[in-house]
Automatic annotation (TrEMBL):
GO MF annotations in UniProt: nucleic acid binding
Protein name, as recorded: ATP-cone domain-containing protein
SUPFAM superfamilies, per the entry: Restriction endonuclease-like
Lineage, uppermost ranks: Bacteria, Candidatus Collieribacteriota
Organism: Candidatus Collierbacteria bacterium CG1_02_44_10
Amino acid sequence: MSAQIRVMNAAGEYEPYEEEKVRSSLARAEADGVFQDRIVEHLRTKLYDGIPTKVVYKEILHLLKKLKSSLASRYHLKQAIMELGPTGFPFEKYFAGVLESYGYKTVTNDYIRGKCVTHEIDIVAWKEDCHVAAAPRNDIAALGMTSSKIMIECKFHHEPGVRSDIKDGLYTYARFLDIKENGFDEIWLVTNTKATSELVAYGNCAGLKVISWNYPEDFSLRLLVSQKKLHPITVLNSLSSVDKQILLANNIVFCYELLNPKVNCLPKDALIKAQNEARLVIGTN
């Protein structure tokens, strides 16, 4: 039956329904074979030709919440990142934090004078093992380092069907050319959804590193987050929308940050419940 069923993705495109894709997504959420079998069997009773992927997602999430809440939280990762906020600012801080977990040093939302105009740069990053001279925050160009300094442009989308495209690449690379003389060696464009094939082709040609939800395979946003359990607090089902916004306003973005004993911005009962769920999600006892 699955070979005859099509699903409609978030971009409005039809593609064949593949059980293996469902199993792969569940495996990334650390669901074992038993859970995968139960989910796949459940979906077989719900499928119809042209079913939207968002309906499939909701069916899976609903059943996972009944079976094991921590699996549901991990499965919710992509949507949870979209919940970081409509402005995209928390996403910049979030991705900077992800990079820091991989040995990078970062500065967010810095103003740098280019050849023609001044630019606000979402993230400036460099590797931790660089020999960095002390410099004020607003003088990133004065940092003395032995390896690449990276300009990172973040493109945040809060709808799953929206993709970063060639216009984003052209805009980002033009800004890079204007500030390149300040010691920048690399330019990255990072998005929380997908990138069009045209943007990827342009990036490969121009030297613009494109990082999207599932690209490149060995350095995608999904992989970077999952490998080190860098789940945002928005994955937690025990938190209300208001509680999530309170935590984000207090610069608590990652689940592991919620486990800091100094966190006290939520009512005690709500905080304990969220901390217990966070431990299950990221595997901290």
